[in-house]
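May I ask you for just one protein sequence along with its backbone structure tokens in two labelled lines?

_____
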Amino acid sequence: MKVAALLLAGGASSRMGARDKLLEQIDGVPLLRDRALMSLNSKAALVRVVLPPNRPNREDALSELDVEVVFNGGSELGMSHSIQIGIEGMDADAVLIVLADLPDLTTTDLNKLINAATAHPLANVLRGANQAGKPGHPVLIRRALFGELSQLSGDTGAQPVLKRHLSDTVLVPVGAAALRDLDTPEEWDAWRAERTT
């Protein structure tokens, strides 16, 4: 099964003020580059990154990495549009959607989803979940649903498709990383403080 990782990095990070959360440093590397490296090290056959056209520093953060970059000229239309742009012309049996602002996900977590898709061939959707079973990310969606993904609209991401396919969804335990994103300077400060204790 050929899986393509789709790294969504087209948001405005408006809650960060003048800072771009995807350029925040993790061990001396911008978050976006760190997440791209994580994806490249997984079992995904290719990595495609969706970027806004007006943030060249994000593209610079990916320099010399073997990723496909596509630009979402309609980033104001929300995450759904990023997904549409991201899967367009994608040659894969499934897409593994990875949000670029989840800093705790690991390559092992991504591989858990890919392995689970092989183990559960009838599941069209596989989702990372926390310890309590609450679904989060990453999300693997088989090609059979690409048509539905291409009809998405608004800033709800793939949620309408995921809700329609609860009966053929498998939750894959990845822990707290499945739900932890960092949207504000305060959240970044708290996360960094945890890492140093």
